[in-house]
């Protein structure tokens, strides 16, 4: 496992750098520019909220930072490796060990039980005894008695708890969350926020989150505003 | 609900994925069933036409020892649009080159032959020609053996009675040179108009008049209705189906086509069922929304009914549009394979099952779940957990299965066929339930991991619900396809077994009792062994239980055996291929009793214990039936309706002997020596008939292979439809696995393994179920012995595994091409 002490040894170490990220989509006759020259740095252990209106390019930026997609131009460096230049399989291997995800629509596999959903990344990363670790995490998110339930038998909040357990399963160094409370009511959203922040603290994970939920953004150490594909540097605030 | 609204909603619907799947499945289903139905009915017509050349027409009317057939009868046939031809057959002496020879003359009119071709050689070493006519007036064509016997050459003159005719060709083959015991002497063909001038035919001459008819099946049937009351006792109406030689093979081929069609109906309905059920389940949210918006349940029901109706129409038309060009193409192909004209005919009644299949399976599968939704209160619908209403899915499926088997029954009208297929399916579901249990028990303990095998096995366990459902459908598809493969294999093996290499191709008839030894040694010296020699006594069946046979058997049941003399025999051992179905074969001491052929016995309505009376010349004999046995008429060996024990009533009556043997083509010339040495023994050459039957069997075989190929293609389509039913879930899963860090190669390998394993299971199940169905089908539908065909049954699971692995790989394609980010968004 990762040596936790190393994570805290250099608190100001930069873990993720994006330089001049540009993403264009070819629409046949036109090209649509979704992101234009985005440059940023994220330090280890930091929590960062990316805010902006719908369609401003937040989620695209998140996907590029997480290595789920490759930019048209520019470069993403995670822990010193230029992931935007890695092959798809190398990026996958990197994601398996270093990166966790939480999605707005949970993205649980409907055929699998809660336990099996959490076990999935552990199995892919070849952890020993994935079931034990998954059970532990589900207990941590308060679903110890729902292990054998499938997503259909769980409420939205419960599904997102499973997704959070899954995201932290492999002890990622960085966690990407895309509108984690977007599909939930206020009360449940609040609970999910608490859980996410608590786990983040406990595990010393770097958190990068897209949200237009002001209260959630406010709980992050830093917020980046994105507008029409440009990072609004003037509005970058550190908490 | 107006039609316009329905159509509007179809256009809107088309954008939905589920609807595309349903409509595609419908189009494919209709197209497959239509193609097979059209092709099978065409094939049937073509085969019968092809086989009709055995009669040189579609029907034959014979008048044995009778008056010429009235010209008005032919006139009537022509007025009904039928083609007619006339033949006169008789035996007479022919002289040529100062020698005489008894010949069997066939005099034919201009139109002969109506079906098939005459093969002649116009000069001694000229080319073989296929002609659709007989010799012209003043000419004769003679059998090559006769040419050698009389040392004739083309261009020589021969005399038949008072008429001198010119030999203008060697008669190599006549289409209707069938198995005719009276055609004992070498054949000579002449023109029918020359017959009166020969002066050979006089009062009391033994002459056979034959009329041939050809044309539309319905016109022939109508003509027969007209003709039947006019027929006398000496008349015999024959169709190719009455001829023993081929009818069994043709009947089995027809049944095979029927089975193929039924299986197509089943496959098609599976495809539609899978797709439309999926659609129905997907419509739950829409129905829920409509209910919350205040639309009454019955409106929703009517709306969906209208929609299904429109789809039925659209799908049916689309299917027909696909089917017709494919059918035209197949037609073309068939014409080339069979080397004969195959007219493009669309048999509209044959299409009915195609349309019924589509609509019935659509309604049977899509409507019940939707209809049930309208009974659920709006609030419950909104909150309903999917799966909650699945409790009654089995009822829906049961209703649909009944509907579909009803369709097959309507189509095939064969209770046994339907029961066998249902039996196979029940067996399948039984094994499937067991397999499900085994899977749950044994795979539960498998640990997942970054290894493709473990991921695949875990996948099988975790997806067990959908996997078992898929395996069920695959197994059913494979069962249907393998049933057809198995039936085809045994059918072909059966045909091959009937006419193996060295099937006897020559008969020696009319061997005098004191010549038997000499004949045997003649062929023994030439290395040819004769089959069993049987004595033959010609006699008529005249009484049943002491009453005249004409009173006992009503005239309506035209029993051919009563119209002519039967060949009676006595034998010690029953021929190997005969089988006693009632009573017992004689024991060694028994000298009374008679064994009767099974079909004749049932036509006569007689059983073991009934007493049959025969007239042989001036003698009469009466014997009780001791056994009833089946006879292989296709075996090309002497076969007998009536077999007496040796030393019984028949011995002492004037008898001649008959036998058959195989003569290789290279030894044909020995026949000349034989006929010179034994002028009284009649020789019947059936080598060309056997060749012709083998040719027809080859044609039927090719046709059967074509149907099989179609069915296999349809099976693939069904399997693809089933895989596409879970496409979205699978793709979402693939995308997520990639997001969570699964390598592409791992994803590909584990998916292919998982699908491959499911395919293997399905294949094994399908083959087992098919064997069950075939076992049930064997005697009732196809007769003959069914063997297990491991060489066919073994590869099927493997092929199924490979095909499914490839399908699994195929459905993964978009997951691998697009970034996981894009995919997750697209699937949201």
UniProtKB/TrEMBL annotation, chain A:
It comes from the Bacteria. It holds the Pfam family ABC_tran. One of its GO terms (molecular function) is ATP binding. Residues 16-239 form the ABC transporter domain. InterPro entries: AAA+_ATPase (IPR003593), ABC_transporter-like_ATP-bd (IPR003439), ABC_transporter-like_CS (IPR017871), MacB-like_ATP-bd (IPR017911), P-loop_NTPase (IPR027417). Keywords: ATP-binding, Nucleotide-binding, Transport. SUPFAM superfamilies: P-loop containing nucleoside triphosphate hydrolases. Gene3D superfamilies: P-loop containing nucleotide triphosphate hydrolases. Belongs to the ABC transporter superfamily. This is ABC transporter ATP-binding protein. It comes from Marinobacter zhanjiangensis.
TrEMBL record, chain B:
It is found in: Cell membrane. Signal peptide: none annotated. It comes from the Bacteria. Residues 262-375, 707-807 form the ABC3 transporter permease C-terminal domain. Residues 23-199 form the MacB-like periplasmic core domain. It is a multi-pass membrane protein. The keyword Iron does not apply. The chain crosses the membrane at residues 21-40, 256-275, 308-330, 350-370, 391-412, 418-440, 468-487, 706-725, 746-768, 788-807. Pfam families: FtsX, MacB_PCD. Keywords: Cell membrane, Membrane, Transmembrane, Transmembrane helix. This is Permease. The lineage of its organism: Bacteria, Pseudomonadati, Pseudomonadota, Gammaproteobacteria, Pseudomonadales.
